[in-house]
Amino acid sequence: MMEKNDALKKEKRERVIKEGIPNLARVMDKELKSSGNGWLVGDSATYADFHLASILKRVSAQLGDSSWKAEFPDVSKFVDRVYSLPNIKAWCEKRAAGK
Fold it and tell me: From CA 77, how far away is CA 21, in angstroms rounded?
């Protein structure tokens, strides 16, 4: 986070962990259940799937907290599913290798 005040930074971090991530995961869980096919919109992966999976994965990593996964196991599986798509997985591996 860009916040310079440590107390405020901690407060904002906790708010994202306790409210922000669960709110996003709750909406995603509802949409995944509504679609019934494992994707947020339509019958295959879309930009929405990539974008929202990326937000959850990145914010969880940056904050060092993945406690939302226990409450939203279907959303956790969805994020794993997106990141295991062959082209996404290859891109992430290439990027991690610095290529």
Answer: 16
- Sorted by sequence, the CB contacts under 8 Å of residue 88 that are 6+ apart come out as 50, 82
10 Cβ contact partners less than 8 Å away, ≥ 6 residues apart = none
C-alpha separations of 5 from 23, 71, 92 in Å: 25, 31, 33
pLDDT along the chain (99 residues), means of 10: 83 91 95 94 93 94 91 96 95 85
pTM: 0.86
> What does the block give as tokens for 77?
């599986």
Could you give the domains of the chain? 6-96 (1.20.1050.10)
pLDDT at 99: 66
Question: Whole-angstrom Cα distance, residue 60 to residue 67?
Answer: 9
